[in-house]
Design goal:
Chain lengths: 144, 117
């Protein structure tokens, strides 16, 4: 299969997260990924995009854009989710299981834990005031 | 998203369907809480059979409903979890406090047994 790349920009609204998942599933179709792989990837994307919307932009959607870039190179899927929101003060705390700054929204604090469980590698780059970029990779077909 | 709620053996049964992400769980939890508030149920059962996707927002919903049932001295049970949902459930550590059953009937039996504790 040839290498491929797509970039999707969505307004930071929680109803758009399902669109990001559907686009990712469609992008993966030619690679004949297993149902389990697609579910894992959709879940990790859902976590990262939701974080960008509710934490990065804290629900203030006016002209706030979340970008999702997907690329496959030699069977390695790379996912880049970025926002230009408030950024993360303390990345190590944010990664702690059950840590959340929004308990009133019933956030479980498991977003990064899920990303790390479902993907091979997760990197977070963030600067307060400048935004956050989460980069994740996963080898496709690893279970075949 | 769909949500159909009924009461069986004084257990509030929420039959959930669709995708449990942040957007949908906000609406689901409001409906479950309103029905629970009005009822005299102590236990809550979430029937996950028709859930096609769940992320950690679903875990947040489960924790919140567990707390509500606990306030009335009741329990929370989950039935009919698919493999991916069960995996998330394991990662969350909720297996220690939330009952996991195969079918709705199993869940009602288990919760019925704890009704008069």
């Amino acid at each position: 299969m040839n290498d491929n790349f797509i970039k999707l920009e969505i307004e930071a609204k929680s109803e758009n997260v399902s669109l990001a998942r559907v686009v990712a599933a469609g992008f993966l179709t030619p690679w004949d990924a297993t149902v389990g792989e697609v579910t894992d990837i959709k879940t990790a994307i859902s976590e990262a995009v939701t974080n960008a919307i509710i934490h990065g932009y804290a629900g203030a959607a006016d002209s706030s854009i979340v970008t999702m870039e997907l690329s496959v190179k030699e069977n390695i899927l790379s996912i880049k989710i970025s926002d230009k929101g408030v950024g993360i003060e303390d990345i190590e705390s944010a990664k702690e299981p059950l840590f959340t700054t929004k308990p009133e929204m019933e956030r479980s604090g498991l977003g990064f834990t899920v990303m790390e469980s479902f993907m091979d590698d997760v990197k977070i780059e963030s600067n307060p005031g400048a935004g956050t970029t989460v980069t994740m990779t996963r080898k496709l077909g690893a279970f075949k | 998203m769909g949500l159909q709620i009924d009461i069986q053996n004084r257990v509030l049964v929420a039959n959930l369907s669709g995708e449990m992400d942040h957007h949908q769980t906000e609406r689901m939890r409001a409906q479950i809480d309103a029905a629970f508030e009005k009822s005299s149920c102590r236990h809550i059962l979430l029937n996950m059979a028709e859930i096609t996707f769940m992320d950690s927002s679903g875990i947040g919903l489960i924790i919140g409903r567990y707390k509500n049932a606990e306030k009335r001295g009741g329990k929370l049970a989950l039935a009919e979890m698919s493999d991916p949902i069960a995996r998330l459930f394991e990662i969350s550590g909720l297996a220690k406090i939330v009952l996991k059953t195969v079918t709705v009937t199993d869940a009602l039996l288990v919760l019925g047994g704890t009704q008069n504790e």
